[in-house]
Amino acid sequence: MAGNLSFDQLKKAAQTGEIDTVLACAVDMQGRLVGKRFLAQYFVDSAHDETHGCNYLLADDIDMEPVPGYKAASWSKGYGDFVMKPDLATLRQIPWLEKTALVLCDLLDHHSHEDLAHSPRAILRKQVKRLTERGYIGYFASELEFYLFSESYDAARKKHWQGIETASPYIGDYQIGITTKEEGIMRRLRNEMQAAGIPIENSKGEWGPGQEEINVRYAEALEMADRHVILKNGAKEIADSEGKAITFMAKYNYGLAGNSSHIHNSLWSADGKTPLFYDRQGPWTLSALGQAWSAGQLKYAKEFTWFLAPYINSYKRFQSGTFAPTKIMWSEDNRTAGFRLCGEGTKGIRMECRIGGADLNPYLAFAALIAAGLAGIDEKLELQKPFVGDAYQASRLPEIPKTLREATETMAKSKMLKAAFGEEVIEHYVHTARWEQFEYDRRITDWELHRGFERY
């Protein structure tokens, strides 16, 4: 991945005091940055080679609670260390934190120094390697949506996350006048991400009051995933510094649009110059390779839905008439579809997966899409004809899993995913999903109290 800072530049900046802090960050199962803040000079002298962290960070839940039942890490094994190996190609200075650089780390076994197979970055690396072995580059782009609030995280917490004032009072989808009012944050986000080596194409208002979308320039799959997680983390930090709050929840409010993370993906030649999905003479100008790849993603969509929708809340987003898909099918430039063909008739032709929410982990999501696409190629699948019309009203189309429980059990039975990721990796994430379900099933919600405290 191309950061904006070389190691030699960091050395000089640490000596002059231009940079005094280095964030060494790994990515956890939830797609968050975890790690340490180093004195820059110490990082340059020593920690750039490796540092360590507790292996419970890949065996916990979103509340950072150690979860029983994982084979990879447990109390009985003592929750030992893993190695955090800085990938110096990802080194960058981040403008929104004073005198601070950031580097992403790969997670390695403490004894063998081999990749931890269940770490998100290693999972995606494995699938990228499969592409490379065939002479392909997978180009990906993830569109991120979020709600911007005029109140701080502290204020939202004191309100118990209810009645928080959005940055705009009504829907301003594409409206310049409304989004001008939100420019204090959005301008910083675009410019400071660009300065951190994350090329931003544009931002726009979305289909909810105070809802935003930001689009990052497409890149090779691993680089795009790296950009995605740094962007999410930085967006929250920038908002917090301005006394604002952001949420990437898939569905924070029943009555409002959900937050998606649409994923555009295509294959190119190894040198990145030839688009392998474009065939001017082919049906829909989509090559036979692109058709098989897309057919694989359609065939296995139910099996990998969890990688696009990993929480209880994720499934609240799949509602008719909300621009979130409910059916597994593909269509030409149709936003009711689970998969939409974009760029038809151009070298930029690609398939957009619309199933994922903004709460997904991009490493896991991209890896699942690659695995399914390669399965489609290996199985020589034929792409069905595109759906035409309103997919919400089509009763005979296969449906996206409606609940986390359904998606989890479908993933647990997937032979394709086990073959691509390894059985132990799938077992690890099935356990993660079942724990999320277990935690929800035993909780009493505000909705239950409101509905039943007096009336039962």
UniProtKB/TrEMBL annotation:
<keyword id="KW-0436">Ligase</keyword>
<comment type="similarity">
    <text>Belongs to the glutamine synthetase family.</text>
</comment>
<dbReference type="Pfam" id="PF00120">
    <property type="entry name" value="Gln-synt_C"/>
</dbReference>
<feature type="domain" description="GS catalytic">
    <location>
        <begin position="120"/>
        <end position="456"/>
    </location>
</feature>
<dbReference type="InterPro" id="IPR036651">
    <property type="entry name" value="Gln_synt_N_sf"/>
</dbReference>
<protein>
    <submittedName>
        <fullName>Glutamine synthetase family protein</fullName>
    </submittedName>
</protein>
<dbReference type="InterPro" id="IPR014746">
    <property type="entry name" value="Gln_synth/guanido_kin_cat_dom"/>
</dbReference>
<dbReference type="InterPro" id="IPR008146">
    <property type="entry name" value="Gln_synth_cat_dom"/>
</dbReference>
